[in-house]
Each structure stands twice: as structure tokens, then as C-alpha cells.
Specification:
The chain has about 130 residues and is α+β, with helices and mostly antiparallel strands. The protein has a single domain (about 25-130), classed as 3-Layer(aba) Sandwich (Rossmann fold), CATH 3.40.50.150. It has helices at about 45-55, 75-85, 100-105, and strands at about 30-35, 55-70, 110-120, 125-130. The structure holds S-adenosylmethionine.
């Protein structure tokens, strides 16, 4: 994905890193985003990754997460059945496992201030959280 980035605005840069060990100083960013990542991690890695997101966000800064969720329609139960069947093939149900990260955000001092379900494309949950001062 990094190789496909055509060009960046002046002063921007890309870094490749493990989300559980970010190579950035504490409180260095106003906004931190994890898009379709957290649901792929096992529980210990999820804890470390959200902890890292919190660590690198400035107090008062924002954290945004986007994760898949089951559709909130009559398609919900077939989706859940499919995801459960895929769980037999792969730990993360081939990336379709639904996830609401809000409990984990709160655990790390990130206060969810807005959540929106999006039903276009992958059914997803977008959460906006504020990093409260420690
Ligand atoms: C489903 S893709 C989402 C890509 C992009 N964020 C988006 O929204 O389109 C998941 C990405 O997370 C990356 N990934 C998985 N585990 C990771 C980890 N521990 N640290 C950093 N990236 C990871 C994968 O390599 C993959 O590029």
C-alpha cells in the first residue's frame, strides 16, 4: 500500500511500523486513525495497539477507528453465520469479524464522543474518541 501512494503534500512522510510498537514519541499527534486494522488483531495485540494510539495522541487530541460490524438489517444474521463459518478457516474470519472497539478505547482513557454506523461498502462502525488528559 505504501508503494502505491502517488505523492504527498510537502512536509508529510510515510512510516512502516507495527501498530503494537509505534516508533513515535508520546503525545506527538493531534489525530490518530486506525482504519480496518483493530479487528485483525488478537486480544493482547489489540490492547497494545490501542495503548499505543493513546500514547502518541496529544491530550485533547482525537482518535478515530473504523471497524467492520454486522449489518443492522435482515442481512445481519446471515452475515453473522458467514463470519462464524469463516472463523473455522481463519482466526479473524478472513477480516470480516465484526468489532466494536469502544470498551477497549475507554480502558485506555479514550472517551468515545461520536459513533456512526456506515452501511455503504463494508458495514462498518466509525468511532471518534477524545484523549482525555491522564
Ligand atoms: C484491511 S487492511 C486496511 C488498510 C487501510 N488502513 C484501509 O483502511 O484501507 C489492514 C492493514 O493492516 C495491516 N496490519 C495488520 N496487522 C498490523 C500490525 N500489527 N501493525 C501494522 N499494520 C498491520 C495489514 O498489513 C493491512 O495493510
Amino acid at each position: 500500500m505504501l508503494a502505491r501512494i502517488p505523492s504527498l503534500p510537502a512536509g508529510w512522510s510515510l512510516a512502516r511500523a507495527n501498530a503494537t510498537r509505534l516508533p513515535f514519541q508520546a503525545a506527538g499527534f493531534d489525530v490518530v486513525l486506525a482504519s480496518y486494522l483493530l479487528h485483525l488483531l488478537d486480544r493482547p495485540a489489540l490492547r497494545r495497539a490501542v495503548g499505543e494510539m493513546r500514547r502518541v495522541t496529544k491530550p485533547g487530541g482525537r482518535v478515530v477507528t473504523v471497524t467492520p460490524v454486522a449489518p443492522r438489517s435482515c442481512l445481519g444474521w446471515p452475515y453473522q453465520l458467514t463470519v462464524a463459518a469463516l472463523a473455522q478457516l481463519s482466526d479473524n474470519s478472513l477480516g470480516l469479524r465484526g468489532m466494536d472497539p469502544r470498551q477497549e478505547l475507554v480502558r485506555h482513557g479514550l472517551e468515545p464522543i461520536k459513533a456512526r454506523y456506515v452501511h455503504r461498502g463494508y458495514p462498518s462502525l466509525c468511532v471518534l474518541a477524545r484523549a482525555n488528559a491522564a
